[in-house]
Structure formats: C-alpha cells, structure tokens
# Entry
Amino acid sequence: MLGRLLVRYLRPAWPLIVAVVVFQLAQSLASLWLPTLNADIIDNGVVTGDIPYIWSTGGVMLLVSLAQVVCAVIAVYFGSRLAMGMGRDLRGDLFQRVVAFSQREVGQFGPPSLITRNTNDVQQVQMLVQVSATLMVSAPMLAIGGVILAISQDVGLSWLMAVAIPVLLIIVGLIVWRMVPAFTQMQKRIDRVNQIMREQLSGIRVVRAFVRERHERTRFESASDDVMQTGLRAGNLMALMFPAVMLVMNLSSVAVIWFGAFQVQNSGVEIGTLFAFLTYLMQILMGVMMATFMFVMIPRAAVCANRIGEVLETTPSVSAPKVAASAPAPLGRIEFDHVDFAYPGADEAVLHDLTFTIEPGTTTAVIGSTGAGKTTLVSLVPRLFDVTAGSVRVDGVDVREYDPDELWTRVGLVPQRAFLFSGSVASNLRYGDHDATDEQLWTALELAQAADFVRGMPEGLNAQIAQGGTNVSGGQRQRLAIARALVKRPEVYIFDDSFSALDLRTDAALRRALDTHLPDATRLVVAQRVSTIQHADQIVVLDHGRIVGIGRHDDLVETCETYREIVESQLAAEAAA
# Structure
C-alpha cells in the first residue's frame, strides 16, 4: 500500500522529483571528489612542501564545498515542496472520501480513527517522503561511489568494507524488524487517546454532573500511558540503532588505520591515499547510516499507509448512480414501498415491510416507543442509508436513482441532535442557502421562533456560535437548526424529533407558523409528544420496526392500542404534574 500511495501521489510531481535528483546528484559528486583532492594535497603538496599547489588545490576544495552546500540547500527545498504537496493532496482525497461516506462507513471506522488517519497517519507518510527526498540519491551515491573510489585507492584494504557493510546492514535490519509491531500498536493507541478525548469534550456536562472527573482522568492517563510505553519501546530500538552504527564506523576506522599503517610502513601506500580510503569508507558507512533514517521511518509509514488505504479503498455504500434519473417536477410526494432495513451485522432488521404514502403539502407524523425505528425511517428519505429491501420514492423516482445533489435540494433535514458550526448565526443559516439575504434569514428566524433571542444578542446575525453550538441553550440550538432548514426552502421538510427541546408554547407557535407560511410543503415529523402531532394529516405508529397503526389522531385513539397507550401515558403524566 505504501508503494501504491507514493506512485499515485508523486507521479504528477515529476518535475520536482527531477530537480531533487539533479541537485542531490551534484551534491554527492562533490562529496566524492573532495577526498581525492584532499589526498592530492597531502601527497603532492604537504609531503613535497609545494605551497602553491596546496593553495590552488585548497581553493578548488573550497569552491567544491560551496557548490556542495548550495546543491544540498536547493535539494532540501525541492524535497520539502514535494513532501508538502503530497501531504496536501493526500489529506484532500481523504477528506473528500470521508465526506462521501454514509453513516454506515463513519460508524465502521469511528470518528476518532478517521481524524487520526487524516492527520497523524498522513504526517508519517509525508515525513518519509521528505526524508527520502533528501537522502534518496545522496545515500546510495555515497555508498556506491565510495566503494568504487575506495577500491581504486587501495585494493588491499577493501576486505574491510566486505566485513563492515554486511554487519551494519544486519544490525539495522534486525532493529527495523523489531520496530514494525511497535509502530502498528502505536497508531491504534493514538486512536484510543483521540476517542477518549473526544468523549470527554463532548460529554463534559455529563462527566461533571456525575462527578466522574477523576474516573475520566484515570481513563485518559491510562490510554496516554499506553502510548508512552509503546513509544518507549520503539524509541529504545531507534536509540539502539545509532550507537550500533557508530560502533561499526569507529571500529572500521581503527581497522583501516591499524592495517593501513603497516602498508605505509612498508611503502605499499601513500599517506594521502590511506586518508582518502578512510574518508571513502566513512562516506560509505555514512551513506548506510543516512539510509537508516529512511529504514526507521518506513515501518511506521507503511502501517499508516495501510490505514490510509483502507479509507481510500472503501466504497461508500450510498453512492451516486452511474446515470441519474431525470428529475421530475418538484411536488414533495414520498412513497415507502415494502421497505426493509437492517444495519450491517445486525441479527434482524430494524424496519419491516413499511408501506405508506405521504401526499404533497401534508404533514405526516411518526411516533412510537424508543428504539422503534423512527429516526432510521426518516433517514431513508434523504438517503443517509440505503434500504435493504423495497424502495423509497420521492416524486415518483427511487431515491437511489437521483443525483444526490438533486435529492438533497428537495429535502431539508433537521436532525435529532441539532449541530451548529463554528462561525456566526448568519453563516450557520446560510448553510441552507449560500445566497440568502439578511431579510430571508430574519424571515426564517421568525418562523422558527428564534428571532427574539437572536435580536437579543449584541451582534445579531453576526453573533458568534461556538463549534457544536455549545454557547447557546438546547432550545436555541434546535430553533437555529430549524431556521437553517427553512432558509433552504425545499419541497420536503423532515423534523427528526426537532421539537423535543421546545416548551409547549414555543412548539405550538412554531407549528402554527409552519402551517401558515408553508402550506404547500410536505412535512415528515418524528415526535414523542402527542400534542405536537395530534393535528397531523397522517400519523404512522411504529412498534419494533413495524407499522401497527396509520391514520389521524381521533381514529388511532379508537383503533390502535399502541397509540392509545402512548396518549394515555402522556395524559396521566400531565395530570400527575
């Protein structure tokens, strides 16, 4: 998977790759030339006392060193551009894929894991690319070129390379092999830390209400300690690598000087040649050591690439048809035709053989006990899920045959948990219609019974909303979510238990406003309170995913036992209150 990701995202950046290769090649050639110049200075200048030769050759060495530094800086610059660009493209594709996921895929991976994959995992792959772009030419060039030039200097000492290089490779290979499981476990434990952190931030009120701060702190510390322990294991192995490499390099240096001294003593080799051979051997081992930086990062990057690939290769269960159906005239008619639905891996279906029709311009309510499948039912209309059997049709066309944008244009959804984005009141409302005027926003707020408290805010429409709407009350958040759907002005409105956070007076005023100003809109309402739905044109009563009653309030009280029990229980509760 790591190789496929690199090929896919680096192929468009071939000019940068060429630039990196060219400048690293120039840097490596300069590095390989310097030891030869150094040997010439010693043998032909220092030993003979030729001062002009020392100055001239030394000047060439300075120019070569300057060129080496310039090429290294340029290569690092282009390598950074290459890595950062790949990270940008990879994050963008991950984001686009996650946005296309249905609730099924989001639940499969989990939000904390998806966040980690789009941040930490991408960063690990990006770092590997950056390090590789810096070393991918210079490291092998120093190693291979050093071997060739070292042999050309002195064949008699070449056996030292045949010993040092395999020993170094074996040590590095064993350490990297031990690091792979640690890095695999590291990413999973980072996911766990993110999950606990998200739970604590989202549920801070519950944590404080039940005085569970100490328990949650212990949970987080435990997860954080697991990350630390795994990081220590990987870090210890990484820390072991560099001393091992330095040990091999230093022993090799001692061996070269030891055995080379005998050759110098016997006039078998010049002092400059010996130093050149030693320098080339160091460059060879340095090239291997530089490659170890990549070897250290490859295991973790490979694990991260596999996790990224899992997301990119997951096909959304809710996808656009290859050829979208022709969109009919928008009316707002909804038909459920023998609909079944089961969640993946569930033992039984949540919804069973649902068949009913919602006529344009009418209000249909869905009521039932907790877990009866009400939210699942209304989620099938905007195609948040796809039916397991049967079909859901909007204006005569199966929702699976619509272009998703066309379907969502016709449907306005106010979810059970109202969510507001960070920004102003106006920016949240314009999620419904980007081009809506301030006048249209105020009209929607009036209908949603939210205009008064928005006017009471110091900045009105420009008042800032925190992420999730945490700086407004539950009822205010719910009314702003309703206003956002009203700004969109679709043919079908779906209110998924959207009135539960409202008091009875506000609830009644909101329903009257909707009846008066949206008489032609189709409304599908999920509610727990009978008072909210008793005037609906049609009430669907669910029990364990099956329709046990359908009709108007007065008829259902007489004919449907489940509905009558709900009514009587609420009347008894009101009387007791």
Q: What stands out?
A: Residues 30 and 65 are 7 Å apart (CA to CA). The longest helix spans residues 213-265. The chain has 20 helices and twelve strands. The first strand starts at residue 334 and ends at 341.
